[in-house]
Write a structure and sequence with these properties.
- There is one protein chain.
- With about 190 residues, the chain is α/β, with parallel strands linked by helices.
- The protein has one domain (about 10-185): P-loop containing nucleotide triphosphate hydrolases (Rossmann fold).
- The protein contains 7 helices and 7 strands.
- The chain has a 7-stranded mixed sheet, sandwiched between helices.
- The longest helix has 18 residues, at about 155-175.
Length: about 190
């Protein structure tokens, strides 16, 4: 089930698309317009030592890659560094936010680890969340989200339309409008 005004959105990307650039520019524009965007976007590649993330609330870059190990294969994500980034985002959330951006939904989040707790924390605080989800992970995302998510194409226009929808919905909610399906089932 999908609700166009749901405050949880998956920016679904194909292998040739760059969800980080879309999320980074969107967050920068929202911050410039006076909104507070908290979260991170990926920088660098998962399979090498350049893997890092940019914190959206302060622009700091954090290394997420494991220390160089020539024998390592696949993604070089250092879980301790990811958890440290998650704690820094949690701390930023304690100062308020209008939107939380999570750089990726992957197997760690699918298993309830990684940054999955940030998603839950933000939604429990009624803060909208957008997360990049690879097309090949979308079925896992639907299970994780219980079907209560908006699927967005990996285009800035789709993200802007979703933001307008939930921003307008949140403004109406303040004056007593009816709750959306996502709000009721949350």
């Amino acid at each position: 089930m999908f609700d166009a005004q749901c405050d949880l959105a998956a920016l679904v990307y194909q292998p040739h698309q760059d969800p980080d650039a879309v999320l980074r520019s969107f967050a920068a524009d929202l911050n410039a317009r006076g909104f507070r965007v908290v979260g991170m976007v990926q920088a660098g590649q998962c399979a090498d030592s350049s893997l890092s993330a940019v914190l959206l609330h302060n622009g700091e870059t954090l290394l997420l890659a494991q220390d160089f190990d020539p024998a390592a294969r696949g993604c070089r994500l250092d879980l301790a560094r990811l958890q440290n980034a998650g704690m820094r985002i949690t701390d930023a959330l304690s100062h308020g936010a209008d939107l939380v951006v999570i750089n990726r939904f992957g197997k760690r989040e699918r298993d309830g680890k990684g940054l999955s707790q940030l998603i839950k924390r933000a939604l429990n605080a009624d803060i909208p969340v957008v997360i990049a989800v690879g097309r090949d992970h979308f079925a896992d995302w639907i299970k994780f989200a219980g079907g209560m998510s908006v699927r967005l194409g990996c285009e800035r226009e789709a993200l802007e339309a979703w933001w307008r929808s939930i921003s307008t919905s949140n403004a109406r909610r303040d004056v007593g409008s009816h709750p959306t399906v996502c709000e009721i089932l949350k």
